[in-house]
Design a protein that fits this description.
The structure holds 2 protein chains of 2 kinds.
Chain A (H helix, E strand, L loop, with lengths): L7 H13 L2 E2 H12 L3 H13 L3 E4 L2 E4 L3 H17 L3 H9 L6 H13 L3
Antiparallel strand pairs in A: 1-3, 2-3
Chain B lengths: L1 H27 L6 H15 L4 E2 L12 H4 L6 H10 L5 H13 L3 H30 L4 E4 L2 E4 L6 E3 L5 E5 L4 H16 L2 H14 L4 H23 L4 H13 L5 H5 L9 H10 L5 H19 E2 L8 H22 L12 E3 L4 H13 L2 H12 L14 E7 L5 E7 L24 E5 L4 E4 L12 E2 L4 E6 L2
Parallel strand pairs in B: 1-6, 3-5, 7-8
Antiparallel strand pairs in B: 2-3, 4-5, 8-9, 9-10, 11-13, 12-13
Helix pairs in contact in B: 1-2, 1-4, 1-6, 2-9, 2-13, 6-8, 7-9, 7-10, 8-9, 10-12, 14-16
Chain lengths: 119, 478
């Protein structure tokens, strides 16, 4: 199943959820107002939209995520590879690694990702 | 309401002339920085905002004879009647009745035009308000970048929204390089307070929506604001940086409909002109700037003031000065009479207009000033054949100034609140009537001297004379 699209400003909202979940929707509204300057109603609109899309879940005013931050990030990167590298992962990796020094743990993490990549 | 509309119409026409002058000056000042053009538009705005123009001999505005006479042939004095009904609660019932009758009779072209004007103004305000609210709604999911800058995915080009707490909204998709120049541009807007001037311009356009010159002015103002803002940003840029800036302008280019869709936000207008200007930008020599500013300041005196003799355009002031003069002359003559007792108290007079206190002050000055004796002597010599009468101490009386339909002369109407006048007709105000309860005086501006007689038999205290003795006296007008 492909990960649903999350737009930029929605992503900021998700970041707050990922950091604090599970949390009350009222608390989420409060945090969004504090950090993003959103009106309470705006937060509820976005929350509703993300729930409809299956990114978040609002059960009895308790907000949890259905998609993890990692999933979202992977989906985003895949989109980038599709768009800019015509789906050519090695070309992407070459461009990514090129011109920057990788720490050992970063290289390990990359290797792990590549290893876990299946058909 | 009709009166208000015609006042607005007058202001609009005068301001239109100023706008034409500004458009011409923009061409003359072509090489100078554009903020001077913005300064010139401020003159138009001032002209639109200031209901009473100052009269000056240096005025460049031609005297207007307003089309209002042709539209309201029989009610030319409506404009002067209006402030009475608005400001004074003291008017005797009978007079208000008369006025009401007069106005109801004039439910004609004037009223219709006034209603059309109001509707148009409402529509414009609604449009402005609605597009503001819609834009706000569109950016409510924006997220803060830093300070007053917010990122939004539902905007296609950067703009500023808000008057009191303005925010800069930019699209997510801008790359860092473009973003830097865009922000420099928008910050310059905020420094120049353009987020206040532009809505102010729109509000004035709402009021004067019927004036095509104001639409042209608004469009040109928007352009000048953008170019002036560009100039401020690129002032110290090298050619390479200016090229980048021009590219950033191009990236953010949006359709021309943008400004129309959202008058209170910043759309980018006239991009091709601005790109060319950016690339060609040269610092203007200080001497040229100073010259342009001096010329602007000098012209502003001429453009912001009305001609002195412009009786039609600003009836308030001219009528006041002339009434006051008339009174002074009247009093002078009475004092120079040998048998007259030393001047008694100044006549207590109230005019049915707003500036009663000013009038009283003029009186005070006149009585305490030596100048008044000399002045009076001059007149008594020159007009020694005029019968001169003592002015009796006046009772507290109300007067009303009524212009005739062509605004070339005015009549002076005494209102006696103690007598019921509901049957009296005021159709004939330009003539001296036989009406027993009103005293009319008339001054015709074409002739220097006019004889004032009083038909008022019921009141010997009338300043215009005494009907029972059959005498009147002359009222000298310069």
């Amino acid at each position: 199943m492909s990960t649903p699209i999350i737009f930029e400003s929605e992503y900021r909202c998700c970041l707050i959820v990922w950091e604090h979940e599970p949390l009350k929707s009222a608390k989420l509204a409060e945090l969004c107002k504090e950090q993003l300057g959103w009106a309470r109603t705006t937060t509820y609109t976005v929350l509703k939209r993300l729930s409809d899309r299956g990114v978040l879940q609002n059960k009895n005013t308790m907000v949890t995520s259905l998609i993890s931050k990692e999933q979202a990030q992977v989906s985003e990167v895949n989109g980038l590879i599709e768009k800019k590298f015509e789906g050519n992962v090695p070309a992407f990796m070459a461009a990514f690694v090129n011109g920057r020094k990788l720490k050992k743990e970063e290289a390990d993490a990359l290797r792990a990702i590549i290893d876990s990549a299946k058909e | 309401m009709t009166g208000l509309f015609f006042s607005i119409l007058e202001i609009s026409i005068t301001a239109g002339l100023v706008a034409l002058a500004v458009m011409f000056l923009r061409l003359v000042f072509k090489g100078t920085p554009r903020w001077i053009s913005c300064l010139l538009w401020a003159l138009v705005a001032l002209r639109l905002l200031c209901p009473f123009a100052i009269e000056s001999k240096l005025s460049l505005i031609p005297e207007l004879s307003l089309s209002q006479e042709s539209q309201l042939p029989e009610h030319g004095y409506v404009t002067s009647v209006k402030p009475i009904t608005q400001t004074d609660t003291d008017i005797p019932q009978n007079v208000t009745n008369t006025i009401a009758q007069e106005e109801s009779a004039s439910v004609d072209a004037g009223t219709v035009l006034a209603i059309v004007w109001l509707c148009g103004m409402g529509a414009m305000a609604l449009y402005g308000g609605a597009s503001y609210m819609l834009t706000r709604r569109r950016v409510r999911e924006s997220i803060p970048l830093k300070d007053n800058i917010r990122l939004s995915e539902s905007v296609s080009s950067p703009f500023i929204l808000g008057v009191l707490r303005p925010f800069i909204y930019i699209p997510f998709t801008l790359d860092k390089r473009t973003q830097k120049y865009v922000l420099a541009h928008e910050q310059a807007h905020l420094k120049r307070l353009d987020h206040i001037w532009k809505p102010l311009g729109f509000v004035l356009l709402c009021v004067h929506w019927f004036n095509p010159l104001m639409w042209v002015s608004y469009v040109l103002l928007c352009r000048d604001i953008e170019v002036a803002c560009d100039e401020r940003v690129i002032r110290d840029y090298s050619l390479n940086k200016r090229k980048d800036y021009a590219r950033a302008l191009l990236d953010c280019k949006v359709s021309q409909g943008r400004v129309a869709a959202c008058p209170l936000a910043f759309g980018e207008v006239g991009v091709s002109e601005r790109i060319k200007k950016t690339l060609k930008y040269k610092k203007t020599a200080t001497a040229i700037v100073v010259t342009a500013v001096v010329i602007t300041l000098l012209l502003s005196v001429g453009l912001l003031t009305d001609p002195v003799s412009g009786a039609e355009t600003h009836y308030y002031e001219s009528s006041y000065s002339r009434v006051t003069e008339g009174y002074e002359k009247l009093t002078e003559l009475s004092v120079t009479e040998p048998s007259t007792e030393p001047a008694t108290e100044p006549p207590v007079t109230e005019l049915h207009e707003t500036e009663v206190s000013t009038e009283a002050e003029v009186y005070e000055d006149y009585y305490t000033d030596d100048y008044y004796y000399d002045y009076a002597d001059d007149y008594s010599d020159e007009y020694s054949d005029i019968e001169v009468r003592e002015i009796p101490k006046l009772p507290l009386t109300h007067y009303e100034i009524v212009w005739n339909s062509t605004h070339t002369s005015w009549t002076f109407k005494e209102v006696d609140s103690s007598i019921d006048n509901s049957d009296s007709s005021s159709d004939n105000i330009s003539d001296i009537t036989e009406d027993s309860h009103y005293s009319y005086g008339e001054i015709n501006t074409d002739e220097p001297i006019e004889v004032i007689t009083s038909p008022d038999a019921s009141s010997n205290d009338s300043p215009f004379g005494d009907r029972s003795s059959g005498t009147g006296y002359k009222w000298i007008v310069p």
